[in-house]
Amino acid sequence: MQNTKYWRNEGTQKKFTHEIKMEWVNNVDKASQLLDIGCGYGRITFDLYKEGFKNIIGFDTSKPLIERAVYENPGPLYTTDKQTFENIHFGLVICFALFTSCPTEEGQSELKKLINKHTMTGAYLYISDCITTDNPHYNERYEQRKLNIYGCFSSSELSIFRHHEPTHFDDLFLNWTKIKERKVDGKTLNGNNIRISQYLYKKS
Question: For a FRET experiment, which of 25, 37, 92, 180 has its CA 20 to 30 Å from that of 43?
Answer without folding.
Answer: 180
